[in-house]
Amino acid sequence: MKLSKEKLDIYEKNLQCLQDAADELMRRMKGHDYSFRREITDKKGEFSPEKLHSLVEEMLSLWEEKQYVRFPKAGWAKSYLRTRRELYGLYLYLTMRCSLYQDGYFYVWGSERKARTDFAFLLEQAKWFSRSWCITDGPDNSRQNEPHNGYDKHFGFHLYSPINHYITFQELNVRGLEDDWALTPPYMRAENRLYSETIPSKEAEEPQEEEELETAEQIEETGEPGMDVEDLYEDGDYDYDYDDDDEYYDDPSWVEAENEYQGELEARNWNLLQLILRFEDMGEYCSACQRFEELFKGAETEILRDFCQELEDIVNLYLAQRETAPLADTEKALDVYSRVCEGPLRQAKIYGRGLQWKDL
Fold first, then answer.
1. Does residue 284 carry a pLDDT above 90?
2. CB-CB neighbours of 183 under 10 Å
3. Which residue has better confidence, 17 or 66?
4. Tens digit of pLDDT for each residue in 72-88?
5. What does the pLDDT look like over 115-169, one tens digit per residue?
6. Which residue has the higher pLDDT, 29 or 177?
7. In angstroms, what CA-CA distances link 101 with 38, 226, 259, 330?
8. What is the DSSP code string of 5-70?
9. pLDDT, greater one: 274 or 181
10. Lowest CB count within 10 Å: 119, 299, 322, 332, which one?
11. CA angle (114 as vertex; 120, 27 as ends), nearest 5
12. Per-residue CA distances from 139 to 103, 136, 160, 189, 297 (Å)
């Protein structure tokens, strides 16, 4: 069946209508309109450490009370909650703390990610962070938890590197941050390490490692495996003569692009410096990042598996106290969503069959 452009346009408009309805539904179900900014700032709109700590404590206390109601006689309830309470509390503190700086992530990483001060944004970041969870082998062959690409590129931890750099040198340069001041150095990141689940036996692994190491050393020294330095320069095919005045250095478009890039770096550096100078309690923030890393690294699998769901429960209980719709009640959201889509979907099927008969 071939569809005309007019009919395809109708389909596109119908799909867009469904998408708009679904987006509006999820916005209402996920509390996009409920901001915690006023809960953590004073009357002048300035950050209040006391109010933030009070908010996190209130949210955790409501959730803790519910757990004791569910398991009133369980002796393990106290130990069950101890690590979870601190881990979740630190995550709430870090994410809410950084949410006040809308462009902070861009200033550090140059990537567009606008911070919002609503609970839906908080849980979105928690979901992305949780998806990066990996289990790796530690230095003593013990299993430990790590985010796949480290902590620093995850929202909430993204200001650790520049703040750490500023505390050390009392200056800041986005060009010099790299990984030297990161919460997770490159060699400790899961993406650069073997996974516990996929590590072969040592007997099969060691010879391969030695062979790869020898080949890597040859490549680094000579540019090609198995080739001596003398052979590299005696090879008749090696006739490239490096010229400092390569043409692209004189290309006006390249120079313009390079100047534009350097200008962007300078602007980012200045804005990030101003942000850091306004940032209160730098030491407490960095300590919270380090403590979260410590807890996350040694947390039991069950804790990290339930990380997002229990954060949703914590937020929902808090919103319920303020008579606000639950933020992420998945079952209710799917139920309403199916009702929104069921009628249009049925009509679309009837409409499609009608078009098919007309074309026969």
1. yes
2. 21
3. 66
4. 665 666 777 888 999 99
5. 889 888 898 899 999 999 998 876 677 788 989 889 999 999 999 999 999 998 8
6. 177
7. 14, 53, 28, 30
8. HHHHHHHHHHHHHHHHHHHHHHHHHTTTT-B-HHHHB-TTS-B-HHHHHHHHHHHHHHHHHHHHHH
9. 274
10. 322
11. 30
12. 37, 10, 24, 13, 13
Q: Quote the tokens at residue 32.
A: 């996009």
H helices within 223-329, ranges in order?
229-234, 247-250, 252-278, 282-298, 301-305, 307-321
User: DSSP assignment, residue 323?
Assistant: T
Phi, psi (degrees; rounded to nearest 5) at 311:
-65, -40
Length of the chain: 360
Of 86, 106, 102, which is closest to residue 288 (Cα–Cα)? 86
Tokens in use for 138? 């530690």
pLDDT in tens, 205-238: 343 444 444 444 444 444 444 444 444 444 444 4
Token pair listed for 129: 């962070």
| 69, 126, 135, 313, 317 from 308: Cα distances, Å | 21, 6, 17, 9, 14
Record the tokens describing residue 155, joined without a space.
């929202």
What is the average pLDDT value for the chain, to the nearest integer? 77
- Token pair, residue 294, equals 């410590």
pLDDT at 329: 54
Of 134, 95, 155, 160, the residue nearest 301 (C-alpha): 134
Q: What pTM was estimated for this model as a whole?
A: 0.70
Distance from C-alpha of 1 to C-alpha of 3, rounded to nearest angstrom = 7
Token couple for 259:
């100047």
